[in-house]
Fold:
Amino acid sequence: MSNREKVYKFALEHALKKIEKNMKELRDSFPFVTVNGKWEICKDEDWDLNIFRDGYWCNGFWIGMLWLGYKVRKDTKYKRKAYELCKIIEPRKNSNKTHDLGFLFHPSFCVGYEVTKDEYLKNIALTAADSLLSRFNDKINAITALGEPQKSGLTAIDTMMNLPLLWWAYEKTGSKRYYDVACKHAFTTMQYFVRKDGSTYHIVEFDLDNGGIKKKYTLQGYNDESCWSRGQAWAIYGFALAYKYAKKKEFLRTVEKLVDYYIANCPPDYVPYWDFNDPEIPNTARDSSAAAITAGGLLEFSEEKKFGDIASDILDSVCKGYLTEGGGDGVLKHGCFNKLEGKGVDESLIWGDYYFIEALSKVLYSRKE
Ligand code: GLY
Structure:
């Protein structure tokens, strides 16, 4: 076993211990971000009334961790808990109030289907994919992130990582509806979100009357012209998958540009500050979740060796410097949810943990299957 493999195995063991502990304590709640190392939880209740409440976009990630834990451990208690929680979020399959259907249903129902081949999980995921399709607006060739479908022109970089639900639905059904929308959305994102220097905007608001742009701005980054590091990471993973499924060279070139920017603007350990342009750097927060997402995305490339090498360097660094020690509930420390609002700053984040475990399971298992 190579030294890197030992480091990855140690990290996965650490993650599995946290999952086991959290499984007992969380019962039917969903972890979101930690506060002083303890999970702040989100009950999947009243989501239709209060769709913007923090954490409501996150309830698929914990389920995804349970499925990945089940895949590794083959212990049925992981599977039982994952099913129990899938049932809780299932009613959201018909709600198209946000683009978050991909974050909710891909780690839970799609990953669950891949692990179990249970048709129930597949059918629910396909219904959720159809709900996501209904947010596509052909006046702007994009899936809108928020607001009433077909009346909102608000699009976000994060949507690139809701597309996995559509790519998966395309793979399972062969239906071009999913492929076409995912491809068109990716092209629109490439055109309007990615700057010349390879950095990204967070939000682009379109004018639905003429298809033009109203404004470009940020909701979570340092300022409208800065580059929010998690947005960059969502884009890297999102375009990596777009290239994997559509094989269009424009998407590959986009990943190259995004990654060049990421590497050039990262500290030596490859874990970015929460925003690449915060003037307080180096005295400001890191976002370990952005590193985990970026590594996971680059591991989707089986042929381009340079991406595999960058992914391994990032993952190695996260394993060596960012595991929670002692009492923390989460797997990774030093995440940053929302610096501007002071929420989940220098804490564990459930999606950081999910993408980290997913990346570890890719390097340790999937690639050898
Ligand atoms: N999609 C919300 C976030 O990345 O914080």
Remarks:
- The mean pLDDT is 95.
- The chain has twelve helices and nine strands.
